[in-house]
């Protein structure tokens, strides 16, 4: 263990009591309760839980990363080696178990060198597969002593890049221990290189999430399920952030009735459901009638707005819409992912801030309407309301372009098999 890791682990061990009692203790009970009895499994892995050693270790954090691991594991089954998922969250572990793809689904070890080492000594993986950017220092350091490491579907957000630049000497040391990096885009590849990864270890392969998205089964969703009349003009504003809802409501409130006299309905699905109260307060202030999804599982007759205050139904809300606005893009957040709406073959409207998905935006922006404020948002909605043919044309063209973003899954499977 070199000096940097000795310092890191000394600080970690000495500072652990302070971290626990000052910062972590207030949240510890809630975290352990949320972990559903799996918290202890981040510190100890019984050997009896493993069917065999020498397989692939998939390290994933979010549910989205677990879905990538599931897609890769499904293609790697023919390798005839054990496939193990190590997830950072109980939700990710649960999802992995439900798919039945893995030979074992466990909580990822706490990134303390002797705990990580004990896990690795029992699993003895032939390959460690990090999803997106799981740069846990002790995991990478200790795993490099047992096996090769690959990072797949790699991305570095603007926020992460700014932080990693401050510890470039440390990231360079970590990247030296990784055998191969598959980057989503050229921008990501350049960022990995600037943080110390050898250019010959990096390949641009695209985003596996789009292979998953376009290949997943799509089930028909009826407006009737949500008490929405078929002839209504429906706008779904998904993954919205603060200040955006006001612009959306202002734009929708000024829309005229459709040429056929159809009503305009607006579904607002905030990025963070804890903000629902803010949206309710704003609508009440404007004396606008609205429904909460959790109360009615749909919209009350006569209401113009439906606030989605539950998780997991955004895809349905996009599917029943005529037009989709994707949030995080009218404020300098960097944008949320608009590709799911494109995949539903809908006309899409976004704001100018899409740096989180710059590569996809550059490809699809000519088939989307880009707006800057409430007035231009209202004009975009009205244009699409008046012209069903324009909606259909934009939706079809963007969906065809979406297909050009696929193929990353096959490319990454070949990389893993060849390492």
Task: Explain the overall architecture.
With 419 residues, the protein is of the alpha/beta class. It folds into two domains: 41-216 and 408-418, 3-Deoxy-D-manno-octulosonic-acid transferase, N-terminal domain (Rossmann fold); 223-404, Rossmann fold, CATH 3.40.50. The chain has helices at 3-34, 63-76, 90-99, 113-123, 137-143, 158-165, 168-176, 186-194, 208-215, 244-253, 276-285, 293-296, 314-319, 339-343, 358-364, 374-386, 388-402, 408-418, and strands spanning 56-60, 83-87, 104-107, 127-131, 148-154, 180-183, 202-204, 233-240, 264-270, 290-292, 305-307, 323-326, 347-350, 369-370. The chain has a seven-stranded parallel β-sheet, sandwiched between helices. The two termini are 25 Å apart.
Please tally the β strands and state the result.
14
Number of domains: 2
Q: Please state how the strands of the largest beta sheet are arranged side by side.
A: 3-2-1-4-5-6-7
Net shape: elongated
Instruction: Identify low-pLDDT runs.
Output: none
Within CATH, the superfamily of the largest domain carries the name 3-Deoxy-D-manno-octulosonic-acid transferase, N-terminal domain
- The CATH architecture designation of the largest domain is 3-Layer(aba) Sandwich
**Mean model confidence by pLDDT:** 90
**How many strands, what sense, and barrel or not for the largest sheet?**
7 strands, parallel
Q: For this structure, what is the CATH class of the largest domain?
A: Alpha Beta
CATH topology of the largest domain: Rossmann fold
Distance between the termini: 25 Å
Give the fraction of residues assigned to helices.
Answer: 40-55%
Strand content: 15-25%
Radius of gyration: 24 Å
């Amino acid at each position: 263990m070199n000096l940097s890791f000795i310092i890191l682990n000394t600080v970690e061990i000495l500072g652990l009591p302070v971290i626990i009692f000052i910062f972590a203790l207030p949240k510890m009970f809630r975290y352990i309760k949320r972990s559903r009895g799996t918290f202890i499994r981040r510190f100890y892995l019984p050997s009896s839980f493993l069917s065999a050693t020498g397989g692939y270790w998939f390290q994933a954090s979010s549910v989205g990363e677990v879905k990538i691991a599931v897609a890769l594991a499904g293609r790697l089954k023919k390798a005839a080696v054990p496939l193990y998922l190590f997830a950072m969250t109980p939700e990710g572990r649960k999802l992995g178990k439900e798919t039945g793809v893995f030979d074992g689904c466990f909580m990822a070890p706490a990134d303390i060198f002797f705990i990580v080492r004990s896990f690795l000594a029992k699993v003895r993986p032939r390959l460690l597969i990090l999803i997106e950017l799981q740069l846990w220092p002790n995991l990478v350091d200790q795993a490099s002593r047992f096996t090769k490491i690959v990072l797949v579907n790699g991305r570095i957000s603007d926020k992460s890049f700014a932080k990693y630049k401050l510890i470039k000497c440390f990231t360079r040391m970590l990247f030296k221990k990784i055998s191969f990096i598959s980057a989503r885009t050229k921008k990501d590849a350049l960022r990995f290189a600037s943080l110390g990864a050898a250019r010959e270890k990096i390949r641009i392969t695209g985003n596996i999430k789009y292979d998953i998205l376009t290949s997943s089964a799509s089930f028909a969703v009826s407006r009737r399920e949500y008490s929405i009349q078929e002839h209504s003009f429906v706008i779904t504003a998904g993954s919205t952030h603060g200040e955006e809802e006001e612009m959306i409501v202002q734009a929708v409130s000024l829309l005229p009735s459709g040429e056929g006299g159809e009503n305009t309905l607006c579904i607002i699905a905030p990025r963070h459901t804890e903000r629902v109260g803010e949206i309710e307060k704003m609508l009440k202030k404007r004396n606008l009638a609205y429904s909460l999804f959790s109360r009615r599982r749909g919209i009350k007759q006569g209401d113009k707005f439906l606030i989605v205050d539950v998780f997991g139904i955004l895809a349905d809300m996009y599917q029943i819409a005529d037009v989709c606005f994707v949030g995080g893009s009218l404020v300098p957040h960097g944008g949320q992912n608009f590709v799911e709406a494109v995949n539903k073959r809908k006309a899409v409207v976004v704001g100018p801030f899409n740096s989180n998905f710059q590569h996809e935006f550059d490809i699809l922006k000519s088939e989307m309407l880009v707006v800057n404020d409430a007035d231009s948002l209202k004009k975009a909605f009205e244009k699409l309301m008046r012209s069903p043919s324009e909606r259909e044309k934009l939706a079809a063209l963007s969906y065809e372009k979406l297909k050009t973003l696929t193929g990353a899954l096959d490319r990454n499977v070949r990389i893993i098999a060849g390492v």
